[in-house]
Structures are given as structure tokens and as C-alpha cells.
Amino acid sequence: MKTSWVTVPDHSDFSIYNIPFGVFTTPTTATRVASRIGDYAVDVFVFAELGFLNDIPFDKNVLKKATLNDFIACGNAVWRAVRQKLQDFLTGTPATAKIQEYVSKGLLLPIEKVQSLLPVEIGDYTDFYSSIEHATNVGSMFRPDNPLLPNWKHIPIGYHGRASSIVVSGTNFHRPKGQFKLPDQENPSFGASRQMDFELEFAFIIGKGNALGTTIPVEKAEEHIFGFVLFNDWSARDIQSWEYQPLGPFLGKNFCSSMSAWVVTLDALAPFRVAMPTHDDTPILPYLQETGNKNFDIQLEVAIQPQGQTETVICHSNTKYLYWSATQQLTHHTVNGCNSRIGDVYASGTISGKDKNSFGSLLELTWRGTQPLKMADGSERKFLQDNDTVIMRGYAEKDGMRVGFGEVVGQVLPAL
Ligand code: CA
């Protein structure tokens, strides 16, 4: 059982077992690559300046950048070694005088004193559709007799999303405007979306790209993953349902997507691996077949907080419900020779379970608005109202170890 000399509150997502990576800035510090322990950000550049990374050969200036991309480009061996050094350092027990020196040099900063930035520069973003319960729920609303399309159990379905509008947790946005068709109208209308929704997702970030024309084999795919974040694929259902045929999601999705600030590594998630659901009833093609535990047992929850009110938790889900793994998604994405690059983000698609309270979107939780949800303040929600804040959380816990993602938070401001 590891403990840290830095005080870590009970049930903190950022225990000594996590040691994630992120980027922060403060009014007095330039941008810094960071880690986190409990309620402190760790300035990894200061850590290097104190000499703790001297025996890891890489250009320490990558630790002063505004994104993790250059640090990630130093390679898997470097980030694993840096994380290990941080973990060892935070586990040891330095003398009190040393701790005072570290604090005075800015190695440890109270989390409320730093501003987390979007951790990576994202060149490309893809969103999958890898939860069978979500695909079945949505399919059954639109095609009651044929909810799951015939390709679904054979390929990880996805679409190319928009990278430019991905923001870090804590960034608010205005309700999007667009074109939609009201059920009682013959012609479409233009205005603020009336059906704002969230989608609870899990995303991975590319740590090593592949050249155009090459494919990442499924058994090598984990070597290309830097880490994972929670992801909210905000969705305007009325805009989406009018525009999505025949080419799929577009303006109903690309106005904003939010991700958590701390990237949790595969090493940190290793103790929480679980098997994928079986694909026994529909065998998959050899290039997607893999062995080993490729899913994770990460508990997820979503809460809505109306302005000035307490939050109401409306969903409990789990990443283990995913039918397709991150590695299958990445292999499928590159099977035609499509290249991936450091910092690219691949989101899972909405993660729903079998139970109604595990559905990962309001579309499903309220069944297209026909079954409103009760909030703690007595109000009801079919879809999100102006000034509602959506909070997603995720953590894994086992044998006294807890590794989590913190929160991904965003508020829907009124349309401009
Ligand atoms: Ca989605």
C-alpha cells in the first residue's frame, strides 16, 4: 500500500497510484507540463530543474510548453520514466526542510491557484459509437423494428468530428443556434436549440502516430495510446435529427465538446482492466480480434446542477459496458492506411448500460423527452435548460487504490 507525504484527501481521484499528466498556467508562471497529487498540481519543469529527471535523456524545455504534444513526442519510454520518478518522489519521505524548499520553488501548487489548459493540441478528433446499449436505445427510437443496424457488431462505427471546438473542463459555452424542423411545421425553423443534451464518453489520446499508408495492428495498438480522459460530446438533438441524413453528425455536435484536464495513463489504469463483452453471437474479423483484458472497470456518473441549486446525479454508468475497445477502434481507424498523429482524440461514443439509470444521455434518460427527470430542486428536465451545469465524474477503485479523472464540467449559457 503506497502513501504520499503530500496529504491526499480520502476518495481523491489523484492518489499516489494515478500520477496523470496535464498542463497549467498561473498569473505568475508560464505554461507548464504538470502532474497532480491530491489537491496539488506538480510543476514537472520545476521537478526537472531540481535535478530529479537528470538521468532521463530528453529536452527539458518540452516541459514549459502550452500542450503536452512535445513531451509526448519524446516517446513512451520518457513519459513512463517521468511518471515513475514522480511517483517515487511523492512516495518517499523528504526532510521537512526539503519540503519547504520544494514549496518555495513552486514544485507544488494548490490546485485552486492554477488554471488547467486543454492538455493537448488536437489535430484530429473521431467519435465512435461503441456502446451496444446506446446504439440499441437510439436505434429503437428511430427504427423500433430494427434498432441495431447489420454492420454494428462487425465494425466500430464512428465519424470524423471537429477538433477546433474541443475545450477543457470548466469552459462554458452558449447554447447553439441552428436549423431544425419542428414536428408540427412543414418547413424548417432557425433559432436556439431546444433540445440540448450531453453524451457521457471516454476518450483516448494518441501517444505515437502511424505514417500515412500504414496500419496499427490490434496487438500493437496500446503502444500508440498516451492516456485517457472523460469526454462530453454536447449534442443539439433538434439540429442533429434534421441534418444527420445522409452524411451523419455535423452542426448538432461541432459547437463544443469538453474533456477533463488530467490525462490518466494506461499504466495507472492497468489494475482496473477487465474483459471485453463476448462477441460470441457475431464473430469479428481477424484484424479486430485481440486477447487480454482490454476494457476498464471505471465507474462513471453524470449530474445536472441548475443555476444556484444543488446537483442531481442522473446517471451511473461504467466504461466496462463498451462493446469495442480503444485498441479495436484505433486499429479499425487505421486499417485503410489512415494516419494518426500525437494529440489526436478518439472518443468512445455515449456509454450506456442496460439499466435505465445507466443511460449516458438525456435523449435516452428521458426517452426523447417523453419521461422527464426530476431535479433535487423540484424542477424537471427533458433536455438541458439555460445555465444548467453538467458534471461528469469517473474513477476506478480496487484493493485500496483509487484512480480517477476528476470532473469534466461545463455550463450551457443562454444563446447569443
Ligand atoms: Ca457522441
Give the total of domains.
2
Highest-level CATH class of the largest domain: Alpha Beta
What's the CATH H-level homologous superfamily of the largest domain? Fumarylacetoacetase-like, C-terminal domain
Sequence stretches where pLDDT stays below 50 over 5 or more residues: none
- Please tell me how large the radius of gyration is: 22 Å
The chain-level structural class is alpha+beta
Question: Would you kindly provide a brief summary of this structure?
Answer:
This protein is an alpha+beta fold and 416 residues long. The protein has helices at residues 44-49, 69-73, 76-91, 96-104, 132-142, 237-243, 266-269, 326-334, 362-365; strands at residues 22-25, 32-37, 40-43, 108-110, 115-116, 125-128, 158-160, 166-168, 173-174, 177-180, 189-192, 196-197, 200-206, 225-232, 235-236, 257-259, 273-274, 295-296, 299-305, 312-318, 345-347, 373-374, 380-381, 389-398, 401-413. It contains nine helices and 25 strands.
Based on the model shown, name its key terms.
416 residues, alpha+beta, SH3 type barrels, Fumarylacetoacetate hydrolase, domain 2, 2 domains, seven-stranded mixed β-sheet, five-stranded antiparallel β-sheet, 9 helices, 25 strands, binds calcium ion
